[in-house]
Write a structure and sequence with these properties.
Blueprint (H helix, E strand, L loop, with lengths): L2 H20 L2 E7 L2 E3 L2 E5 L3 E6 L8 E2 L12 E6 L4 E6 L15 E7 L14 E4 L6 E8 L4 E9 L17 E11 L2 E8 L16 E12 L2 E8 L4 E9 L5 H11 L3
Parallel strand pairs: 1-4, 3-8
Antiparallel strand pairs: 1-2, 4-6, 5-7, 7-8, 9-10, 9-16, 10-11, 11-12, 12-13, 13-14, 14-15, 15-16
């Protein structure tokens, strides 16, 4: 084998190894009548892994029926996407092709080239966000684009008041309201989490104590309808990741238009 041929083969192997190393696997939860997240932007060569642990029969089927997972009450299904395309899919048990993914069990995958411009947070990210898996909590997000700053309220609530002697790891039993604020850059916001307690609604007394910083939060948006919240409250032993999507889609067209307007000429 000549040195030239060897160098060519070695170069090809390095390119293949680099491509494999840079690919990412994205997880999607198959829930009862929803996918979470239901809107993903991935790069060519990435893999999507759907996991059904919901205990009910579901499947994952392309809207054009070119591929499909098993139909089962428990499965893990993976597919790698190697071309730039928009992929629409649904659960044939509970939905049909082309339906609203925020109402029915439908989803979308936007496959882009790796060198496409990264997502940029803009003022139209301001909205109400939640995870369908934990549908008793949500996030109010406000973006000040001129300041490159985000304010967020994170709330949870119970449908019934707990007993008077109930204890809570965080905040008041039955109703917790955290705030977070901080700068953002590109697609990511890094925020301090604060806890406020005390006070009576619309009353000056007793005064609310100063907010206490209890942790940090990093939010990365993949597109105008999908993001991931990573939180860490070390003193409370609370750490986790929450995929989020909008409750309503009204701001998505303006958000996507702002991405186009901000792209380089």
């Amino acid at each position: 084998m000549s040195h030239t041929t060897f160098r060519f083969i070695a170069t090809c192997l390095l390119i293949l190894l680099a491509t494999a190393a840079e690919s990412t696997t994205h997880d999607v939860v198959v829930g009862n009548n929803f996918f979470s997240p239901n809107d993903l932007t991935i790069e060519v060569g990435d893999t999507v892994r759907w996991t059904n642990n919901a205990g009910r029969t579901h499947d994952v089927t392309a809207d054009d029926f070119s591929w499909a997972s098993p139909t089962s009450s428990s499965f893990v299904f993976e597919r790698t996407f190697n071309t730039v395309e928009e992929v629409l899919y649904h659960c044939t048990v509970h939905s049909s092709p082309g339906l609203d993914r925020n109402v029915f069990q439908n989803g979308r995958i936007n496959v882009v080239m790796a060198d496409d411009p990264a997502f940029e947070i803009n003022s139209f990210i301001s909205d109400n966000w939640f995870d369908p898996v934990t549908n008793g909590q949500g996030f109010f997000v406000i973006v000040w684009e001129d300041l490159q700053f985000i304010f967020l309220s994170w709330f949870t609530y119970e449908l019934e008041r707990p007993p008077e002697d109930a204890m809570a790891i965080l905040g008041e039993p039955g109703h917790r309201w955290l705030t977070a604020q901080g700068p953002y850059d590109g697609d990511t916001a890094t925020l301090d989490i604060n806890l406020s307690q005390g006070g009576v609604f619309d009353m000056p007394e007793p005064p609310v104590a100063p907010a206490e910083k209890i942790g940090t939060m990093v939010i990365t948006w993949e597109n105008c309808n999908a993001g991931v919240v990573n939180y860490d409250m070390p003193d409370l032993g609370l750490v986790g990741e929450i995929p989020i999507q909008r409750i309503v889609m009204a701001n998505v067209p303006d958000c996507e238009a702002a991405q186009v307007d901000d792209s380089p000429e």
